[in-house]
Amino acid sequence: MIKDKDQSWGSFLLEALLLIGIVLFIRFYIFQFFRVSGPSMCPTLNMIDDECYSGKGEFIFVNEFLYNFFRTPERGEVVVFHPPHKKIFYIKRIIGVPGDMVEVKNGKIFLTNETNDDVRIDEPYLSARNQGRTMTYKRSVFQVPEGHYLLFGDNRAESLDARQCFSSSGCDGSHTPFVPKGNIQGRAEFVIWPLNKIRWLEESEPETAVPSAS
User: Fold this and answer.
1) Cα of 67 vs its chain's centroid, Å
2) What is the full per-residue pLDDT of the chain (214 aa) written as tens digits?
3) Which candidate in 36, 62, 147, 151 could, as Cys together with 186 as Cys, close a disulfide (CB 3.0–4.6 Å)?
4) 19: three-class secondary structure by DSSP
5) Distant-in-sequence, close-in-space partners of 2: CB < 8 Å, separation ≥ 6
6) Phi and psi at residue 56, to the nearest 5°
7) How far is the C-alpha of 72 from the C-alpha of 97, rounded, in Å?
8) Cα separation, 98 vs 180, whole angstroms
9) Coil, strand or helix: which one is 50?
10) C-alpha angle 89/140/131, rounded to 5°?
11) The pTM is what?
């Protein structure tokens, strides 16, 4: 900002504070840009030249406005968040919402809640390598508490997620697999870079379940 010759210092400072306030409001409540790092969300994100990229890759637009003012996160959405014990941001997909009981059986995911009783979640976003091959790490049943969410990466073979409590040491009792709503920054909406990969991130509906016998 540049102060006009005829403008008082009081008016200039008021405008500056107002501008700073607007910028901070947008930064914390409207949207942000993030860069995806690592292979945990392949093939949904970070597929570069048809290969799962392990380094810093695609830039994404994250919608914070949606969760801050309109509704709560929903199963199937890809979100940016940080675990309770870490300050760094992760990007994963919501598998369970408050009240869900999610169980991993024979590499597949089953859901029990008020409207479903042990039905298998259909996961069309998984690659052939990961389809029906979700591994567990000492824990296979997740009862999602109120106000919390369960998040897995789409690349189940290479994702540090709720199955390990987002920790290389695993769920050792000091960490929880569940993420509070307040730790979810926003929903990943679309990829903005590189230019040849610009696209909307399609919403999937893993709650569209099939009978557990199949």
Assistant:
1) 12
2) 565 667 777 777 887 787 777 777 666 667 788 999 999 999 999 998 888 999 999 999 999 888 888 899 999 999 999 998 888 999 999 999 999 999 999 999 999 998 888 899 999 999 999 999 999 998 999 999 999 999 999 999 999 999 999 998 888 878 899 999 999 999 999 999 888 889 988 755 554 544 443 3
3) 62
4) helix
5) none
6) -75, 125
7) 10
8) 10
9) coil
10) 75
11) 0.84
CB 210 within 8 A of CB 108: no
Q: Kindly calculate the radius of gyration of the chain based on its CA atoms and give it in whole angstroms.
A: 20
- Cβ count within 10 A of residue 149: 27
Nearest of 96, 98, 109, 90 to residue 41 by alpha carbon: 90
Answer whether 108's CB lies under 8 Å from 206's CB: no
Taking Cα atoms as reference points, which of 40, 47, 32 lies closest to residue 90? 40
Helix (H, G, I), strand (E, B) or coil at 156: helix
> Among residues 186, 147, 150, 154, which one has the least CA distance to residue 166?
150
Find where tokens 């919402």 sit.
97
What are the sequence ranges of the domains in the chain?
Answer: 31-210
Structure tokens at 120: 């298998």
